[in-house]
## 1
Amino acid sequence: MASLVEELINVLAEEEKIYMTLAANGEKKRQIIIDADIPELERLTDADQKASDELLSKSNKQISLLTDIANVLGKSQEQMTVTRLIGYLGAQPDIQAKLTAARDRLLDAAAQMQKINELNSQLLAQAIELAEFDITLFKSMRQAPETANYDRNAYNTGDILGSSGFDAKQ
């Protein structure tokens, strides 16, 4: 069982490294979004996807290890978590401390990555809003106001004045 717990600690450490990589990429994305460097954003997003695939693999390995540990301890597989395992390891304080530290570092890294992602999401939303504003502004600059012409049913006909800037001849 000790070897399973040691392997679980190693998997948690590997997951933490992946989260830290994703967080570092998130920091890079902030400046890339500000600079509107789309090719670089695509490259970094591809790297994030590969890291996410690796993270999924490590997560599946973690679940497999927790299932094996639950079987060894005679506990329910569905309810076995790292936190519960820490509680079960009261008789082995050194392993318990290592597992607690690994779990805490992983949770901190995941929280940091989540915070960075939320900030980048807000930045992207603002960039999209600004682009929509620019498009609306450009459309309105090329469009003349509607006339106040009504048909016989009192509906606005929607006629638009000429699209040229000035009608005056020089």
Note: The mean pLDDT is 85.
## 2
Amino acid sequence: MEYTKLKYINQYKSKSINPAKTPDTIFEMYSVPIYATGHPEYLRGDEIASNKAIVRKNDILLCKINPRINRVWVVSDESGKQNIASSEWIVIRNSEYNPEFLAWYFRTPKFQKFMTSEITGIGGSLTRAQPKCVAEYPVPVLNRKKQDEIVNILDKCKFVIDSRKRELLELDNIIKARFVEMFGSIHESTGYPYLALKDLSDVISGGTPSRGKAEFWNNGTIPWVKTTELKNNVITDVDEYITEEGLVNSSAKLVPAGTILVAMYGQGKTRGMTAYLDIEASTNQACACILPSDKIDSMFMWKYFELSYDKLRSLAQGAGQPNLNGNMIKNFKVLVPPIEMQKSYVNFVNQVDKSKVKVQKA
């Protein structure tokens, strides 16, 4: 495929406006914070504090702040009002290109790699792609008919994927609705008791493996579970294995299949995530290992943890990055209906999960 540099196709000539000079005018504003909604916001001139770039329908906006997030937006001109954009966007305009074709290209891993290759800043939201560098990056040269064909295919793919995601969301809602139907609200009294985990199970923390000697760590046979592998999932395999010598020469513990793991530490959404261990494995101190007693069905307890994800995360404490601790886990209360009802709910969830697997494969 033939390529050219972005600067050779970009017809945009920078032009700015100070909205505050027309305080009563409504502007269609494309800002980075509002990007996630998929729609611009509408602001009066006196609500906009600084100069903005004047853009128009079919301009492509390429976000230069924290380019790893890969935000690409095509100006839609939803209202017919003056379209403006914040200075955190690089604006690309070309009347001969299908704007959606360029947007799809800018979203590719290939182009994202370019965008993150020459950034400035110290990390995270402070990093920025440099417009002068971006102007040198390659873009494909294709006739408009071929562009339109590609866009049509990718739009159809996106529609199917979005439809499947909506199906998965609805299936999750069915699981929650069934719980409420059978037991009532997750964390409010329903006539069934709520018991602390310490009264329903053994709660232990993982340990620390011996990394001092490579032979203790590498090429072993004992599964080693990391917190990043806890995604409200069933764990049947892992990425790393330690040796028996490594287990003996460390504080790491071996826990049986049927153990529920809870991430006590972790960045982003990791903290509070759980997993059902379907194999015998070892893990570190960042995980709480819960071994349910015969008072509660282990799968029911795990499903209850899934539904309680937000509640569990809210208990975390500490400056900077809040964490959970052993006492928080031990004192966390779990609904305990009759065991027959627990098993009935688990059977229902298993049937829904089978449907979810089919949708995910699709």
Note: The chain has three domains: 3-142, 145-184+339-362, 193-336.
## 3
Amino acid sequence: MDDLDRQIIARLRQDSRTPAAALAAELKVSRGTVQNRIERMLARGAILGFTIRTRGVEAQQIRAVMSVEVTGDKTQAVVRALRGFPQVAAIHSTNGRWDLVVDLATDSLAGFSETLDAIRRIDGIGVTETSLLLKSY
């Protein structure tokens, strides 16, 4: 991945519906170059897909990041269990004090509390620390 690829990705992050012709004009390359680069990044897995953000739905979600310490050799079982929660938006392995970082999203504080309680009961989860996300930039 070179600077042009990174510039294309940066602009697509701002608006994934930007036409290739508009990207090409902004980046001073041909439309074909932009299309070929995007197709290549999709094929390599550098771009996994395109999405939308909605103000109404996301504005009403309770979002948080949960750091998880896994006990013993149960990481894969914990990850499988976490994948079963619709409130789990993403699971990341990490280094340092925590074994996993889990992105959570619920529609209410009551739902958030229930989700935390259920996750903490998963066999293999030791200590957790959760931080609510107040504002995204």
Note: The mean pLDDT is 90.
